[in-house]
Amino acid sequence: MKVITTIAEMQREILTEKQKGKTIGFVPTMGFLHEGHIGLLKKARQENDILVLSIFVNPLQFGPSEDLDAYPRDFEKDRQIAIQEKTDYIFFPSVDEMYSTSPSVGVIAKERVNVLCGKSRSGHFDGVVTVLTKLFNIIQPTRVYFGLKDAQQVAVVDGLIKDFHFPVQLKAIETVRESDGLAKSSRNVNLTPEERRQAAELYRALELGRSLIKKGETDRLKLIQTIESHLKKTTESTVDYIELYTYPDLKPIEEIKGKVILALAVKFSKVRLIDNIIVDI
Ligand code: AMP
Fold this sequence. Notes:
This protein is of the alpha/beta class.
C-alpha cells in the first residue's frame, strides 16, 4: 500500500494503473475510520482492481461555527485499517496541496441542498461538490462509494455526477450501525456515556416511523409528531429537524407514497447526530 500526499504523484500512479486497464474503486473520507467506512472499503475492494481511499478533512465543507480543528483524526490507526482492508493507495493531501491557489472557478450545489442538513449548513454542499470535483479529476475512479448514512450527500453527488458527466458509477451503501442501532459515526466519540445510551433512540424513532408508514400512515405531520414525541420522551437532545421527502429528489411530500426518506438531526451537548431511513412503498 502506498500513502500519497501530492496530487502530481497520485495522478501519475492512476495513469499507470489506467494504462494497464485496471478499474478503480474510490472511497472518499475525512478519516478517523470506523466500521461504516470499512463497509465502503470492503465493497469497493470486491468490485474493483484497484482501491483508493482518500483522507482529507475538507475545510470548505465546514461552516464558521463548526469546529474544523475539533474534528477527530488518527492517521496511524487509519493506515492500519487501510492495510487490513487491502487498500492500494491512500491519498492523504494537506489543505495547502488541495487548495494551493485561491479558486478562480467555484462549484455550487443548487438542487437537493435547501432541506435537511443543507438548510442549517449553508455552503456545506458547495464545499462537498468542490472537493469531489477535484478528487474525481485526480483519482478518475470507475466507481465511487458513499454511505447512505449521509443520504443527502448521496443525492447531491448523484446530481454532480450527472450534471458534469463524470464517467463514474455512484455506489450507495447501507448505513452500518452499532448493535443498539446507533449509526456509526466519527462524531459518536463526543457523546457522554448517558448521551451515548440515549442516542440509540434515534434509530428506534426512525423504525417507529417505518412501521407506521408500512401500516398505512399517509399523514406526514402526524408521522413527524409521533417521532418527535418519542425523541422528547427518551432523550435529552434538542431536535434540529425531522423531515420527510421524496428520494433522491428531496422534494416535499404531503401524502406518503413511493420512495421516501425519513431523516432526523438532533443535538446533544457537544455533538449533532444525523440518521435516516429510506422507505419504498
Ligand atoms: P466521512 O469520513 O464522515 O466524510 O464519511 C466518509 C464516507 O463514509 C461517507 O460516504 C459516509 O456516508 C460514509 N459513512 C460514514 N458513516 C457511515 C456508516 N455508519 N455507515 C455507512 N457509511 C458511512
